Amino acid sequence: MGDSTGHKHKHLEFTLAAVSELSSSSSVSSSSTPVIARFSADDGVAALRFHQGSEFIDGFNVDLGTSQLFKLGPLQSLCVSESADTNKEKSYSRGVSIRFRNEEESRDFHSAFEQWQMESKGTHLPNGDISVSKSKFDNKIEPSSAKMYFHYYGQLLHQQNMLQDYVRTGTYYAAVIENRVDFTGRVVVDVGAGSGILSLFAAQAGAKHVYAVEASEMADYARKLITGNPTLGQRITVIKGKVEEAELPEKADILISEPMGTLLVNERMLESYIIARDQFLVPNGKMFPSTGRIHMAPFSDEYLFVEIANKALFWQQQNYYGVDLTPLYGSAFQGYFSQPVVDAFDPRLLVCPPMCHVLNFNEIKEEDLYEIDIPLKFTASVGTRVHGLACWFDVLFNGSTVQRWLTTAPGAPTTHWYQIRCVLSQPIYVMAGQEITGQLHMIAHNAQSYTIYLTLSEQGGIIQTSSCKLDLKEPYYRMSQPQPYTMAQDQQPHQLLQAEDIPPIHTEDLDLEELELLQQPSEPLGAQ
Q: What was the pLDDT predicted at 317?
């Protein structure tokens, strides 16, 4: 069913159980004649009208351009609208309470209300159609990426993986419970609530009410889990939808969320966390977490470099069923090095003290996360070959009673985030005390991730520079593979590597002992 103004929706009319106006005692039910809610657009103005039989119900008309719809329960909603009093030349609010016959009709009504409201705020085109205004999320994220993202987090097995990360879950629990003073009697919004575990933590800490906002199908599981814990669940409302599109009946004193991805920013949920802050948080409200830090340091790992380089050796075959594969070897070699490596590594592989880049969630703007530029400057602690940049992150829960950090650092208890390493296809050689400079430049893309541009330069006698481009969306997950690191890792290239794959090392810069070490024959990887 459609109309002449370009609205083409499945539901234009809804049969209700009852409707009443809050400012008066008037109420209309469907006991005898059904009460109908009808969306229409007369003279280009989108409105919601109620009628019983063939008669419109006076005083219940709603202008969709100046109204909001709140879900009070499975079958109960409240529509609040702004109306103009022409005599007093000021606006006043009024509310219409709507009761539905079942939950399915309630969901369909909310969906239609949202769509009609978006179109009422859209732009009329010359042909009479209406250009629909998309939410911030829809404008910047590719639909196929969003579909896969919400499908992934809508499955219990992936939620279980995160819940069983006891470093993550235990730190959140401690940060909340140890800071009860921040939660007791307060309104809390859980951004991207998932299974609802953080909402339940907030309720345990004495929150007055918690709004758990979750866009995936996990919202239904969260509602089931919360209902199964009634003493806590009576103070939790699950709202199914994107935080960019959600509307709440009151402001929040505290935001709680787990918006961190690999390298802190992957999946771009931090932007949703910031949007929630701007939309829902009262001035000077608290954010759990409130600060994030990206830590970085150059590393040396010959085993990893050889492992990645040898993946491309398949493409060096000159007679693969009669086909010469070598024309694609160079592209395959660079392709493998365009994948950030996700694993847990030995902190002794770091060749410099780390530096960090701070993100203050209380102050940062959403747009600041679209492009992140980090100048790099390190001092080498040892003389070795630098194979790339290692990164990890931590976040701060700045409670009034206890401050807690959740860290993913190498050497600390491993989390499901692990650490990440950007590997250079052309390593650089440094001597102890030499300065290493460079840049880590990250640009957000519409697949909910970032393109990474890394440059490292050694500022010694012979300036060496190496760069790489990586896609954070497509990492190499190496966590399950054995890592036989010893106290002093042998830095010999694997025998499968061709000589031209290893960049030349200027022997005039090396002493006799280093020269002899480089000339020794390498052992097979298995022997090491």
A: 96
- Compute the distance between CA of residue 406 and CA of residue 371 in angstroms, rounded to an integer: 24
Please determine, looking at this structure, whether the domain spanning 12-83+91-121 carries the CATH number 1.10.287.130. Answer: no
Q: Where in the chain is the domain with CATH 2.70.160.11?
A: 292-477
DSSP string, 395-425: EEEE-SS-EEEEE--TTSPP-TT-EEEEEEE
pLDDT tens figures, 225-259: 999 999 999 999 999 999 999 999 999 999 999 99
What residue ranges of the chain are covered by domains with CATH 2.30.29.30?
Answer: 12-83+91-121
Q: Look at phi and psi of residue 126 and say left if phi exceeds 0, alpha if psi is from -120 to 50, else beta.
A: alpha
Take residue 248 and report the two structure tokens written for it: 């709440």
Lowest mean pLDDT among 50-59, 125-134, 432-441, 466-475: 125-134
Domain 146-258: which CATH class? alpha beta
Tokens standing for residue 125: 């085109």
Q: Which residues are catalytic?
A: 258, 267
Long-range contacts formed by 438-442: CB under 8 A, 24+ apart: 438/375, 438/376, 438/389, 439/373, 439/374, 439/375, 439/376, 440/296, 440/372, 440/373, 440/374, 440/376, 440/389, 441/371, 441/372, 441/373, 441/374, 442/265, 442/371, 442/372, 442/373, 442/374, 442/472
Distance from C-alpha of 62 to C-alpha of 50, rounded to nearest angstrom: 9
Q: What is the mean pLDDT of the chain?
A: 83
Does residue 261 contact residue 202 with C-beta atoms inside 8 Å? no
* Span(s) in the chain for CATH 3.40.50.150: 146-258
Q: Class of the 292-477 domain?
A: mainly beta
What tens digit of pLDDT does each residue of 282-323 get?
Answer: 999 999 999 999 999 999 999 999 999 999 999 999 999 999
CB of 108 closer than 8 Å to CB of 11 = yes
